[in-house]
Amino acid sequence: MPTSARPRPRRPGRLDKVLYVPLPPPGGRADILRALTRRTPLAPGVDLAGLGASARTAGFSGADLAALVREAAVASLKARRPRPHRTSPAEVSVADSPCAVAAGRGRR
Known about the structure:
Layout: H1 26-36, H2 48-53, H3 62-80, H4 98-102
Helix pairs in contact: 1-3
């Protein structure tokens, strides 16, 4: 069982049971990514199974994957925002966002 950084929540009387939930395997990460992006528009080339199986997402919990999807969506929206020097926003995929690049899926 991993050690807690803060012992206060683990004092007697605070919690009845301590449950350890292991990190998801590669297939589980892909399933979590599919569930998290169910209502999120994705570019046609986004490979959630490949992202879940990637060594770059090894050690990611479900919460980490949710943060990845959320940050990728925000980065995609910011990249699509019209700039004064552009006439129309370029199509940007979630795979090209900085978070997807950090996970090993985008262009550098």
